[in-house]
Design brief:
This protein is an alpha/beta fold. Helix 8 packs antiparallel against helix 9 and helix 21 packs across helix 25.
Length: about 650
């Protein structure tokens, strides 16, 4: 592939459905693979997206669609960000101009986009469970259909995969599991011998054949025994030394591989054999992330796994000017804290670079643990570390901590253990869609007894609140922040207890409680309300759970309370503040603004917030109408302060 991809042309424009692939020759398929890589780089360079993983699955995806008949046969991707090539060959090439943008293609499989997409998954390690259920359903209904699950890019590090494998092996249904192995340093065993051995493994008489070979070679003392040992070593070496077959075959799953995932003929041959075997089969494909595009292949960090925005095709470097990111602020402060406190350790779940834990790992590798895609294990392992006298800092995306709710509740909080969970990409994250929105955490984890939740508004408060969190020694803490660039510092006018006052007018009409990254929004809303003649006090509670007692006192001195948060309204901070006011006997009316419960379509953060009415203009208009309605409905002669 050239370093400067051109616009798609030739064969690619003739591919509108998977069936079109079946008429192509070997030479044409090779050319098509190159065109697809050019297409991917050209399109993703303009929008951002998951580039490296998809460059690595081109031939593998083409082979699957030549062997199986989608959508009758169901093809599932885990993780779903490996599905770009699948989208290309299932008629969605035109949609890539708006990849991950409002109204365009999603970055993951989507039922709304195509009949070839079944599961809308971006949380890893789930596809095998879906596949198990599908295969069972097809068997019970007597349908002659296959299920193909592509598992890779780290998904096999998740516990759900292994739970599913145990059940898949027991069910003995038609299911092909393609393991996309792009994370190992060993090379695949390819060629005629490996191909022959793979065929033998699917033969019930395989062990008998091996015995016959042993007997025959044993009669040649000088050559025979060494040759047999080499043959046996190839078999056992593949199975024991090189890759994880013993576990698969001990479960009763047949295994083919390792296969060169970039050799289309080899992949197609392996998949056809797997398809013909009337039981679950593992096809182990070894691929290279970023394959065929030099900047991705030379990117040591993650092979250009997921450029967040447009990049230069020649270099792979982002075009946008660098800005200070929330993750960087956290990473730098965590290292400083670790310098001061040898008991602080870091944990992440296959997200060392994206969450900033990599900075700690670089300086203190012995104090940093990457547990793979296993958030449940991360939480309970952190509990064990805390029991052992350490203070773990678990850094994950906000959306992924949902997977470990039970562990946070019963393994960490019930034991009152000092574990700090740092939630990156909290709130509406934008282009990656609803499965990535980190909008549930303040509601979900707000019910955990003893949990303290901090929401910093800028770099200074992130550093401050992270230090406060790791200073807590009698229970769990959460520090949450959004994705992207950090807002300019918003210094407080004063601090009331632990609540920061960001704006204060002489008139005390409205107390506006702005949570975390919504502090700037709160100030914009206040300015608009002031233009309508209202006096507004804007406060940042800093710690939103439990609700600071100071908020009830401030609320009692105002006529109305408004809360704004970038989490779901149901069970969110607004609900918690309302409950605190009721408990304190404060009867000031409250209106809460947050994200409506739902699976909101992907788009930029600003576009999604606009679509749900969380802009300064929308909120100010709604508050003005609400307050006017309350004032109009007040009994004649009753003071507004008592409303």
């Amino acid at each position: 592939m050239s370093d400067s991809p051109s616009s798609p042309a030739g064969l690619l424009t003739t591919i509108t459905a998977p069936g079109d692939l079946k008429r192509l020759t070997t030479e044409q398929l090779t050319l098509l693979a190159a065109e697809i890589r050019d297409f991917l780089v050209a399109k993703v360079s303009r929008t951002g997206g998951h580039l490296g993983p998809n460059l690595g699955v081109v031939e593998m995806t083409l082979a699957m669609h030549r062997v199986f008949d989608s959508p009758r046969d169901k093809v599932l991707f885990d993780t779903g960000h490996q599905s770009y090539v699948h989208k290309i060959v299932t008629g969605r090439q035109d949609g890539f101009d708006l990849l991950r943008q409002r109204g365009g293609l999603t970055g993951y499989p989507s039922q709304a986009e195509s009949e070839h997409d079944l599961i809308e998954n971006s949380h890893a390690s789930t596809a095998l469970s879906y596949a198990d259920g599908l295969a069972k359903a097809f068997a019970l209904r007597g349908e002659d259909r296959h299920v193909v699950a592509v598992v890779g890019d780290g998904a096999l590090t998740g516990g759900m995969c292994w739970e599913a494998l145990n059940n898949i092996a027991a069910s003995r249904n038609r299911l092909v599991i393609v393991v996309n192995d792009n994370g190992r340093s060993y090379a695949p065993t390819i060629g005629g011998l490996a191909d022959h051995l793979s065929t033998l493994r699917l033969n019930p008489g395989y062990e008998k054949v091996l015995d016959l070979v042993k007997d025959a070679l044993g009669q040649t003392p000088v050559v025979g025994k060494p040759v047999f040992e080499v043959l046996h070593a190839v078999k056992r070496g593949i199975k024991d030394a090189v890759s994880p077959q013993p576990m698969f075959e001990d479960l009763g799953l047949k295994y083919i591989g390792p296969v060169d995932g970039h050799d289309l003929q080899a992949m197609e041959s392996a998949l056809r054999r797997a398809k013909g075997f009337d039981a679950p089969v593992i096809v182990h494909a070894v691929t290279r992330k970023g394959y065929g595009y030099r900047p991705a292949e030379q990117d040591e960090a993650d092979c250009l796994h997921g450029p967040s925005s447009a990049f230069d095709v020649e270099t792979g470097k982002l075009l946008a000017a660098p800005t200070l990111k929330w993750t960087k602020v956290f990473a730098e402060e965590l290292v400083k804290i670790a310098d001061e406190r040898p008991d602080v350790v870091g944990i992440t779940a296959a997200m060392a670079e994206p969450t900033g834990i990599a900075a700690l790992a670089k300086k203190y590798p012995e104090r940093t643990y990457d547990v793979g895609i296993a958030e449940q294990h991360a939480a309970t392992s952190a509990a064990g570390l805390a029991m052992g006298g350490l203070h773990p800092v678990v850094a994950v995306y906000a959306t992924f901590l949902n997977r470990a709710f039970d562990q946070v509740l019963l393994d960490v909080a019930m034991h009152r253990l000092p574990v700090t969970f740092v939630l990156d990409r909290a709130g509406i994250t934008g282009p990656d869609g609803p499965s990535h929105y980190g909008m549930w955490d303040m509601s979900v984890f707000g019910v955990v007894p003893g949990m303290r939740i901090a929401a910093p508004r800028d770099a200074a408060t992130l550093r401050e609140e992270l230090r406060e969190a790791v200073a807590v020694d009698d229970g769990p803490t959460i520090v949450r922040f959004p994705t992207g660039s950090v807002a300019p510092d918003m210094p407080a006018l004063r601090r009331v207890g632990q609540v920061d006052v960001l704006r204060e007018d002489e008139r005390k009409d409205i107390l506006l409680v702005a949570v975390g990254s919504f502090a700037g929004l709160g100030l914009d809303v206040a300015e608009r309300l002031a233009e309508q003649g209202y006096g507004v006090t804007v406060v940042d509670p800093r710690w939103v759970r439990p609700v600071p007692i100071e908020l009830t006192g401030l609320a009692a001195r105002h006529r109305y309370v408004v809360t704004c948060e970038d989490g779901v309204r149901a069970g969110g901070v607004g609900d918690a503040v309302a409950s605190a006011l009721r408990d304190a006997g404060v009867t000031v009316p409250l209106r809460d603004f947050g994200v409506p419960v739902g699976f909101h379509p992907h788009g930029s953060r600003a576009e999604v917030l606009t679509s749900v009415g969380l802009t300064a203009q929308d909120i100010a208009r709604d508050v003005t109408g609400w307050v006017s309605g309350l004032e109009e409905s007040a009994p004649v002669g009753e003071s507004q302060a008592s409303i």
